[in-house]
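Reproducibility note. Readers wishing to regenerate the assembly model reported in the main text can use the exact inputs given here. Chain order matters: entities are listed in the order in which they were concatenated for prediction.
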Amino acid sequence: MSNLEALNQWVVGIASLTQPERIQWCDGSDTEYTELLSQMQADGTLLPLNAKTHPDSWLHRSDPDDVARVEHLTFVCTTDRDDAGPNNHWMAPADAHAKMDALFAECMRGRTMYVIPYCMGPIDSPLARCGVELTDSPYVVANMRIMTRMGAAALARIEREGSFVRGLHSIGELDPDRRFIMHFPEELTIKSYGSGYGGNALLGKKCHALRIASWQAREEGWLAEHMLIVGIENPKGETHYIAAAFPSACGKTNLAMLIPPESYREAGWKVWTVGDDICWMRPGEDGRLYAINPEAGFFGVAPGTSAQSNPNALASIQHDTIFTNVAVTADGQPWWEGLDEREPAKDWRGRAHDATNGPAAHPNSRFTVSARQCPSYSPRAEDPQGVPISAIVFGGRRASLVPLVFEARDWTHGVLIGAAMGSETTAAATGAVGVMRRDPMAMKPFCGYNFADYFAHWLSFDKPGAKLPKIFHVNWFRKGDDGKFLWPGFGDNLRVLEWMIARVDGSIDAVQTPIGALPHVASMRLDDVVLSAEAHQKLFSFDADGWRSELDGIKRYFEEFDARLPRALVDERRRIERELAA
Ligand code: OXD
Ligand code: MN
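Running the prediction on these inputs yields the following structure tokens for the assembly.
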């Protein structure tokens, strides 16, 4: 029980609806966590991994029909449909509550209902916000303990503040036909039924820290974004913090934990990880944007993570890690495609591995690990005031057209670049993979309100006294005529970040084009990277005809938002069109 009556009443009300056998208030202690793990080991929810190579690490195999976010079953329920916008599925709040309460009725019979008080952000940060998740899944409790500041300290803050986001979750029968993820931003409430998958069930993450928080952020004058935060320290010991938005499974974790190329390491460059998925930013007294990572852990995509691609992530997950839907080797070590040359013994479903069944690890298999286990975890990551942001980066997966990097000429142009972002879909959500779709600011699945209003909110930060970051667009995924990537990516992305920082410092010139400023190739440090002539040509130039049809596509996309779309974005798009025509 809590000394906050509103919280007690809500818990009692939900218990009378769902009828759990018992209620457990989580305190976040080590003892509680150890007990949960043994209970899940006993009932088979968690399988212990090799204790010598991966101490205190576990494998969870989820239901094969419950392995990703379900965007078609995710709703934003606002009184006025237009407040949710064409970017969201919508249901009237009363209908949505009725539908969900019917599913929740008596669904926890024979189960324990866990009460999880949690804080998104450092517990003493004015930028942090709290919530309480009620769930019947011990797997969710264990993951929430890694991903958020969960337990007694969060409860104390909630009792002090008197307000919290209410999240109700049940795995139900894990039936895809009885699965919905509903958000009620006006009531700061989430109801999620029928899935145990991270993005649908760990309600602090996508549901609270993005969909509900984006709504709160607009009301309170800040931004809740699908962005990593990384600190780049130069040889002089100065650190610039960069926030970067990429769609799911497009390398945010890799960029946040980047290892500099050897020549940079020798010169003294360092990279510091603040966050890999979500960024909350607000203007400070000096007019700059300050950011915190609301999460306390990483829920990263396992496939492709290796000693070459992301040594920091690999080092982080050698102990005290929960793996979900990875394969295992004969001696019980976690394994996934891209890790190394070993042969797995069992696939993600627990079957003897057989390549004709497809990949051994599910393409969206994950690790959950505390951020403190990451060797590059920034000493500023727990700073209650956040870190000052020097640059904002938008990026998608674009096989053609889009150059390696370009810079917006001002904030409005930068907002247009973010709003027009396109990317090919990945396995992080159910549905076809590799289809190009517009994904503004990488928030298509996560913005809790009408994108037109969201773009207007972004534009509103440009006001007297503001010292806003520069905005850039990158594309690590450009392909050559042979279908292979033209840019090496990973650690070499630091070369692009160095160029951005030099632009922020005002120490180098760039080539002005209608789409933005492109690097003079000579001003990028490329001496020890091998690039083909085709790569040089395609990564650093722009194709006016191709961009004319890209702008037509953007125009068509914006038509979905009718007159609600901010005029400034229409004018900005027209300006680029005129310049391209000239
Ligand atoms: C994630 C996602 O899990 O974006 O971060 O799907
Ligand atoms: Mn994400």
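We highlight two features of this model. Residues 69, 198-199, 248, 277, 299, 428 surround oxalic acid (ligand 1) (CB under 6 Å). The chain has a mean pLDDT of 97.
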